[in-house]
Every structure is written in structure tokens, then in C-alpha cells.
């Protein structure tokens, strides 16, 4: 049964303590609702209809001009901003606010022609051509200068426009061209390395260049990890990924600083792709934006894709340090870029949207407002589909507008987590480089499995960086933290010593930030903490499984665990490590460190997790509900909003007392949540 008050161990972030309840965006009295608006694809008489229908749907915020550089600056230094002015004015007259984009994700053809060295180059050495979007090298000085000029022009022209409430810088940095391998990038990479290592000898040491005779004498000899006859030095690859993430960040900062200087009253965001972007280290970006925003698209063919949605929303909220965030893009129905673009079932879009709100979003936007008739995305869904207003999509869109209006008081309230899960981009990168012990090792598989087990237990998850402050969480889960820095290791040690409970999965603590094995037996960085060594990895054959604890199954991985202080909880029944430890736990200081040495199947993982949660004292008040019923609370200062999202095919009764905000109905002790439906309750203490 869900509680009426947040559990006592729920985490109140430092930011929550310091700030009054902020609502977002400024000057909006409701949850933001809208989408990407591309008026440039339509004649002006359609714009009037757009604005009229936006009002009908309850739209109050649109992102404008995301890919319109070629129209705003048709030739270098020649601007045509008048049409944009007319768009903004129409929106303003209708009371619709604007999230104005800088169009720098889509450089115009004149830039590519005039500055051919601004084109991106792949690791195979292919120069990417014009005709799509994102055709630029983030290190190109010509690209950066041109980007700065158009940003400045937009800010000086529209900075005081009354419709403008937010800057949408660029679009999905790193999304299409995560890294460029051209000569300009090579030069920038060398400067970045010089900054990091100081001298070449230190770099040689860090990269282990005695291996395969790669020793460098001068900076100029170093190249990006271009296609080579065998795997390129993994330390070099990792540094290049860090560098590439930083180069995109430098492009963002350049634009943001211009905007901050010219329009200090307008906050700046750029749209992240939380769980789906491997190439950008968002922990390094999170503090750089004024408002965190995220794009999320379902894996259309997965029946349980709502779990991935919840995970993306939780990671986004964590990047926002618990503050409200903005869902910048998702889809009303099918996308156009997956192998099979399965449309959303009735009710699914509403559940998706309200799940994002339940998990901290104060705005729900779509890609896109009106479906395109031409171009690569004409089969992508939109708020206003090709079929116009006589469609289910349109009815759902107007219904959602009304729902969000009814939820306005939820804005600014916070989601409290029960446990933390460590998330780390460099570890993801390193785990999935070439020549690992098994090609079946996957970072998202492990994080996703632990997240899903917690989701099915109706528990709230915050994601944390490995060196984040962990105090306050009763349990911290560490899925496959293959790359563990000394700082991360000592943070985890300190957390357990002070009484924390830690659950670590296999292939963690193996290498440092240069992909160099920590000294001694595996897992070097966590050996003492876990009270064990791993004598040998025993990756399993494709499809092979091992028995664990007389009934559970493991796959992908088994290993020779030798306890050194840890107590054996479960042993392998068979396989290469038959009779040896599979799951262990180790008392350390005032806390406990658990270790799971195989990829347990979902029931096995749920069972182990149950024991770990019990030991950590994590309450599971919603434990009696079916797993497909999602229960999340947003709370603030005595107010509590219970979101119940039913992903099942039958109505479900949930204990609740208060007011159903979506229907206005009073609830005395129980809410009935329809099949595939959502209920949001303003709770009253019982
Ligand atoms: C996003 C992108 C949008 C649009 C959308 C389609 O990644 O930012 O511009 O292309 O995908 O799903």
C-alpha cells in the first residue's frame, strides 16, 4: 500500500534545502506544453491556423527555428530575420511563449562551401557531405565563428521580444557526429592532451605506449584514434571520447556566453538525450545549462519500453540535481527512424507524458507541432498529423493539454528517491571498447537490469556520479563500473564505512581512467571493500547459463571469486565455478558491500535485491501492487501528489485519499486506475 507521507529515508537534496520552490519556466502559470514548431516549412497563411490550433490544444510554449540557419542567413553575413519576427509576433499575440533555437546544428551550404575544412570526417577518413544536418566539425574555427555570429544576431534582434522565455542552443550535441577525426580536430586534440598531461612523457606513461611500440616523442606525432589495422590504444580512445565531449561543450559554452551576455534575463538550455547518448558526458554538462531539458523516444518495438522511459526521466532529473526539468521532445506516435516504427497504442502517449511529469518534468514538448510533408521526417508523428484535427492523435493532444492544465499546482514539487544507482559515461565507454573478455558485456544491459528490478519494486531511483555525495541514500547500486577511478573507489569506501549499503555487479573496479588494470588481483579498486578477489574471469558461451543458489540462473559471466573477509550468500550450482561463491557480502565499517558475480536473470536479481533492500532498511510500501503499476510521488512542503500509471490491461485499485486532479473527483481511501490509464491524486494526510 502506498504511504501517505514520503518514506523517512527519502533524500532531500542540498538544493531543495536551499531554495524556495522554484517553478519553471518563468512567466508561465502552467506546465509547459508544446513542441518543435517549423513554420518555415509552410506558407504564412498556415501559420494563422497553427496558432489557432495551438490555442485549441492548450499549447503555451514552442521551440522555433531549430534548423533554420539557411533561411536566417541565406548567404554569409546576409540576414533575413523578418520572417522570424512575424512568427514570434503571431505567437506572442496568441499568448504562446517561445523557446528560440540557435540554428547551429544545421549549418547552411554556403558555410560548407566556403570553409570545406569545417566538414566532419569519420574515423575511416570519409568527409561527410552536405544534404542532411549536423555537418560540422566542432573544432572548426570557421564553424565556431559563424555560429557565434548568427547567435549574436538572433540575440540582438529578438533578445527583448516579449514572447522569448528560453534559448534552445543547438540541437542534441553529439547526436549525429559524436566525434570528428579531421586534421583540425587532430590539432585541437593535441592541445587538449597537452593541457591534460603537460608533457609527452607523462602521456606515454598514462597511455602505456610501451605496448605495441607506440611511444611518442613530440605532440605532433599524436593522432585521433583513426581506423587502424588493430584496436587503437584504449587509453587514447578514451581520451579522444573525453576530448570530443569537451569540444561539443566548448561549442555550447561559446553560444551560451554570448546569450548570457546579451540577454541575461533569458535562461539557456540545450536538449540532452539522457540514457540514449553514449558519447557526451552529461555530468560535465549539467552545471553548464540554466535549465535541464531532455529528448526521449521509446524503443518502439519493446513491449516494456515504459521502463526505459522512466529510467531516462530519472537520469534527467538527477542531472538537474532534483530540480524541475523540461521534456523538450518526445513523440505523439511513431517515429520514422527505427527499423519498425510501431505507433503508440491508445492511451500510451498520455501515459508517457504524465510519467515524465511524475518523474519531475515541468514541461512536455513534442517533436513536432505539424507533420512535415517533405524531407526525411515526413513519416514522423506530430501533434497535428497529416490527417489534421479529425484524428485520434489530435483528440489525444487536446486532451493532454487539458490534463496538464489540471496539474498546474504540481509544478516545482520534487521527486524523492529511495535508492541511488551509479551512472558513469567514461565507464560505459571503456567497458564497450574492443577486446573485452566477452562481447556480451553491455553497460546499459546492467544498469537497465538493476533499474528495472527497482522499478518493479516501485522504488524511486536517483542516478549519481561515482564521486557524488552518497550520504543519505540507504542503498547505492553499482552496475558494472568497469572503470573506477581512485576518487570513485574512495568515495564508495567512505560511504560503506559510514554505514551505507552497496550492491556491486561483476566487472567493476577493474581499471583506472586510462584503462590500466588496478594493481594486484581483480577487482583492484574494490577488492578491500568487497572482501574478495577474482582469480579468473569465466565468460560463458552464447546462450549458456549457470545455476545459482539452487534455482536461479545466470548468463554471460561467471568468475572465480575467492572470499577474503566476505561471507558467501549464494554459490554456483554448476558451470566453470560450480560450488564457488556467486553472491557475497562483506561488512566493512558500519556498512555492508554486496557483490553479484554473474548476470542473474530477472527473478534472481529481484530475489537478491529483496535481501539487500531488507538489510538496508528500505521500505517498500507499494510492494503489494502489480509490477506494471507505476507509483511515483512528487512532494513539496507538506503537499504530496501521487501519480499512478497503469500499464496493464485491467483497472487496478490503489489506496488513496484526496482529490483526483485529472477528474476533480474526491477519493476516500481508494482510487480506481483504469486499464492503460493514469490517476494523479493531491493527497490528504489520513
Ligand atoms: C530528435 C531530433 C529532432 C527530430 C527527432 C525525430 O533526435 O532532435 O530534430 O529529428 O529526433 O524523432
Short descriptors:
single chain, 686 residues, alpha/beta, TIM Barrel, Rossmann fold, nine-stranded parallel beta sheet, seven-stranded mixed beta sheet, 18 helices, 29 strands, 30% helix, globular, disordered N terminus, binds beta-D-galactopyranose
Short description:
The chain is an alpha/beta fold and 686 residues long.
Would you mind describing this structure in some detail?
This protein has 686 residues and is α/β, with parallel strands linked by helices. The protein folds into four domains: 14-178 and 239-411, Glycosidases (TIM Barrel, Alpha-Beta Barrel), CATH 3.20.20; 183-236, no CATH class; 419-616, Class I glutamine amidotransferase (GATase) domain (Rossmann fold, 3-Layer(aba) Sandwich); 629-683, Sandwich (Immunoglobulin-like). The strands form six sheets. A nine-stranded parallel sheet has the order 5-4-3-2-1-9-8-7-6. Helix 11 (305-319) crosses helix 15 and helix 15 (443-456) crosses helix 18. The longest helix has 29 residues, at 234-262. The structure holds beta-D-galactopyranose (GAL). Beta-D-galactopyranose (GAL) binds next to loops.
